[in-house]
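Appendix B. One record, verbatim.
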Amino acid sequence: MNVVPRITITDHLCMERTPEPAGLVLFGASGDLVRRKLLPALGALAGDRRLLPAQFFLLGYGRTPLDDAAFAQTVAEICPGPGGQALAGRCFYQAGGYDDAAGYAALAGRLAELEARFGTGGNRLFYLALPPEVYAPVCEQLAAGGLVTPGRAPWRRVVIEKPFGHDLPTADELEQRLSRVLRPEQLYRIDHYLGKDTVQNILMLRFANRVFGPVWNRDHIDHVQITVAEEAGVGHRAGYFEAAGALRDMCQNHLLQLLALVAMGEPPRFDAAALEAEKTRLLGTLRPWTPERIAADLVRGQYAAGPAGPGYRGEPGVRADSGTETYLAARLFLDDWRWAGVPFYLRTGKRLARRVSEIALTLKPVPHSIFASLRPEDLAPNVLVMRVQPDEGLELTVQAKRPGPKLCMSTMDLDVSYRQAFQADPPDAYQRLLLDALLGDQALFLSGDLVRRSWQFWQPVLDAWAAAGSGGNCPLHPYPAGSWGPAAAAQLPVVDGRRWRLGA
């Protein structure tokens, strides 16, 4: 049974702000990320949501030779309607290299000219839509050219995309280089999952409602499942994915961040410092990996030819003998008072049965059944599901009496679709994150300490894989494209007397 609620939206609880005047510099302005995500997000902020300041300009910077008119035309094509109209006359382009001091000198001159013209007061946001290996060199050039001098007024900020390193040593090296030229309040590390409305709603659900607090612990929660499944294969990202794999691409960042939001204690307030402290503390309680745990609690796989298409090794740009994992499932434990003994099952993969991202908390059975013919274990458990994508919403499974005989009982799903309830599609994550970077709000960004804690947790697994190759206690299990993953992964919760909520 689906129940569509009637929701009253109270506008006075909407706490949106418009940023101060500023200029936004997009490095890699002719690249794929800018065209697919950043320009549409800016268009939405400028048009439909009207959240960009009146004193604002956009300056593209890249190696591709373009002029102002060509870049402005690109923006207009990608952002039609109100967004393109609001950005018209505010889009410019500066060609230059990423390791060329002369290019940064020209950029500085162009910024001075545009800041005077648009009255932005020198506030600058630099967005590096670039390969990760050039993050440090670009930031060092920006610092050498005096483009990111620290201070409250005017402010200078830099946004970088994941991955933040390839492993713990490279993450440490990147952090050391960036920290020499940027202060912590200037650096914004994006994990785009944190910008999704449904991910942010985890905090609202937990801490703005009293109903869930008393049961959000080991006394009532039996286990937690976090699934991020993709139907698609690697597509045009084979070059990146071959070097990354599912662990680096999804588990080290997205899945651990979802786990942290679900399991962390209540922060004293909703701001960057409080959220970071609680998430960092929580990740510090993850039970460390040992060789025995890697063998028992971790399954990695790679998709082979199946109903959904060719195998990973048959994709363009992938080595014929590739040992890269496209699937990972893990059983994790948090050694703290709230969650001791509660298993967290995580899984992610490409070429799976369907695209879905969700967090499911299964509650323990009732301690005693008053219904003589039914034992507590006969009653289906309550399950709270937070759907992140594609059908964003909430679902709560409860037991209810069916019309009919006295003890006619069945499971009922209380299902809330955000799209139906609010009569609107959730905004793209990049809208939220771009706006927060302009506002100077780091609550939905990652700190260096949080990134390092994540790498520290996964590094023993990377080391074990490197030592064992595809054998030993780290086999690479094939699974048919279009399935729910390897058979070995299906057994991961079964040995505990549980099963995956979706699929095998």
